[in-house]
Amino acid sequence: MAAAWSITATGSGCCDTSPTFSLTKLAYDPYGNLALLSPANDTRVNLMLLLADRRGAGWLKQPKAEGAASPALFAWDGIKQAMIGHGPTDADLTGPSRCNTNDSGIDAFTAALSANSAVPAGEKTALISARRAFDPGCDDAPVSAPPGTTMPAPTSPPTVAGLTSPAGKAFGAYLTAAVQFYNGQFPAASAGFAALGQAPDPWLRETASYMTARTALNAATLSAIDEYGNLDLPAKRKPGPAQTAAQAFSAYLSAYPAGRYAASAQGLLRRTWWLQGDAAQLSGAYTPLLASPGSNEVTVQLVQEIDRKLFEDGSGPAAKDPLLLAVADLQRMRRDNTGEASETVYGPPLSTADLAAQKPLFADNPALFDYLRGAQAMFVAKAPRDVLTIIPDMSHQARFGYLDFSRQMLRGLALEALDDRNVRQFWADLFAGAKEPEQAGALELALALHDQRTGQLGQIFASGSRVQDAAMRELVLAYIAGPELLRQQATASGVTLRERDIALHVLLGKELLHGFYADFGRDAALLAGRGHAMGGPIVPAEDGTGTYEEDKYTPAPVPLGIFGAASANPAAGCPAIAQVAAELARAPLAVRARLCLAEWVRSNDFDLYPLDRPREEAVKAGALGTGPSQFPGNIYSRLEVYKAIIADPAAAPDDKALALSRAVRCFAPAGNTQCGGIDVPLAQRRAWFNRLRRDYPATRWARELKYYW
């Protein structure tokens, strides 16, 4: 889920799931979680980090990240896969369907009926056959239908003829009620289950009680759905149906505290509180569950449930448990991509007074409370000096838990903000105790960000550098490295071939686009013996374009072949790019050579060169790869080249015709420039089009251009 390198066909940066390589980001970054408590982390990740300290060293597993070049940034699904071996399911994301118990219900019904000696053998056979024959279409059946729509057509209850024994009739009545439940006919099902409250069979009595509550819960869920088929906001839900369901589950648990459905009933009872919007009662129910060790599967599912029921709708601040409250507080420190608080999602920004009022709740965990105080000072109040007072230096530890690690990382960020001269050594000191998964990765990022801030990029690539994460090194090479560093890494020993190829690709691409044509001619000699893959510029992407097999990601080849291609456009009389660069080195204003470079840029998708334009979100977050570029020269624009040639009275007719045609096409298909440079009004584009058709009608460029945009 972290940044890998891919080939882009659009040259337009990356997708929305690209993670941001920053330690101070405040916008939610689902694919860029860090191994420290952070406002930008997924709330589930923050809760798992806190639980990891309770469970002990080594409990949290290394997050898996399919297709990731940098596991230092990971998604929640990466933790889930590592802990229990699979990613999210539909039930995890949408809540339980009433139909998910159909198969187990068949087995339970069969077992109970087989054990009842009062039911004749023939009636048992008929009832079991009828139950197994019923198929409610559970793959498609929704939990409920939104207002104005209908449920799927009900399946007719199975008919079981010849039931004469009272016990057999009771099982038949249960079967009818069960079919009505799965069909979404809740009033009828509720009446049918309630009538079995005094059934002689103990399984029937208990199961009917449980199913009465489940039926009420499904009806309550139906009543809480808005006109779009989504659960309505808590304030808009009718509390009555959910309260009825809560009473039914409480009645079941009172009668059967250790019953066969007790665990399920407890979970569904929490669901009724969620439907009621009762965050306080819901939070209280989670406290003993979080304190219980449980299996990895149980813990992961619990964390997902808590996230869905407490944090998705902003009701988390009602939590009293210190772990839940800490996660809620961090969520309230978030900002959106404009830098503003998003109150509609996270509540009002967390103030110093808010935290002070919470202090009694953290009586048993003052270290966590102090971390929250420090985080609020750093991220909300923008007072890094306060952080140094709140969080003492404890950088020399044999092993950090996640809270202690987060505290020291926060102190380091405050030192960075204050430009402390010893902060780089502080980061280096933390490595000795950073033994839990991805703590070292966060420190690598801290060092790389420090060296970016101070302009000492060479330290990232020095012999013995702690920054070994491939994606971090590549971000620096791609976006901000100067020609000397790129040339050094293009030929460096002791680094991967991929890093050398990326350095060479960036070096040659920027030399062409920034006007260093003679340097390109010399550095192109390094292409000998390198790869011949074709493609566009390399840009960071969340998934890459390689292959993933058996936990190993193989990224796509670096497209060095584009620098040795025979011609970008033979029809325009353009030679290989090396010859074009050589001509421009001799005569930088040569019209045909400038047009041929533009053809190379166009045909290889180097327009709006992404490595000269870091992602806006990353820039706002002060991310790695967004520091001042050390590569000199101006940003290239084909449109500006065409404008200059159109205005050049000495340009040959065919060259001017090509420039006019390409300038007009820069605005296809939507009327916005796709070639960079300064936009021009529609009237100017129309004038270029008319001039081409009027002054150069015999050229292929005039014949081929039918429209203007």
Structure in words:
By secondary structure, the protein is mostly helical. Among the domains are: 98-141 and 145-224 and 238-276; 638-704, no CATH class. Helices cover 51% and strands 2% of the residues. It contains 31 helices and 4 strands. It has helices at residues 43-55, 76-84, 90-94, 102-115, 121-133, 166-182, 186-194, 202-223, 239-255, 262-276, 279-291, 296-311, 322-332, 343-346, 352-358, 366-380, 384-390, 402-417, 423-430, 439-454, 470-479, 483-490, 497-514, 517-523, 577-586, 591-603, 616-620, 638-646, 653-665, 682-695, 700-704, and strands at 4-7, 538-541, 547-549, 552-554. A hairpin with a 2-residue loop joins strand 3 (547-549) and strand 4 (552-554). The longest helix has 22 residues, at 202-223. The chain is globular, with a radius of gyration of 33 Å. The two termini are 38 Å apart. Residues 1-15, 90-95, 138-153 and 541-552 have low confidence and may be disordered.
Protein topology:
Elements (H helix, E strand, L loop, with lengths): L3 E4 L35 H13 L20 H9 L5 H5 L7 H14 L5 H13 L32 H17 L3 H9 L7 H22 L15 H17 L6 H15 L2 H13 L4 H16 L10 H11 L10 H4 L5 H7 L7 H15 L3 H7 L11 H16 L5 H8 L8 H16 L15 H10 L3 H8 L6 H18 L2 H7 L14 E4 L5 E3 L2 E3 L22 H10 L4 H13 L12 H5 L17 H9 L6 H13 L16 H14 L4 H5 L5
Antiparallel strand pairs: 1-2, 3-4
Helix pairs in contact: 1-12, 1-13, 4-5, 5-6, 6-7, 6-8, 7-8, 8-9, 8-10, 9-10, 11-12, 13-16, 16-17, 16-18, 17-18, 18-19, 18-20, 19-20, 21-23, 22-23, 23-24, 24-25, 25-26, 26-28, 28-29, 29-30
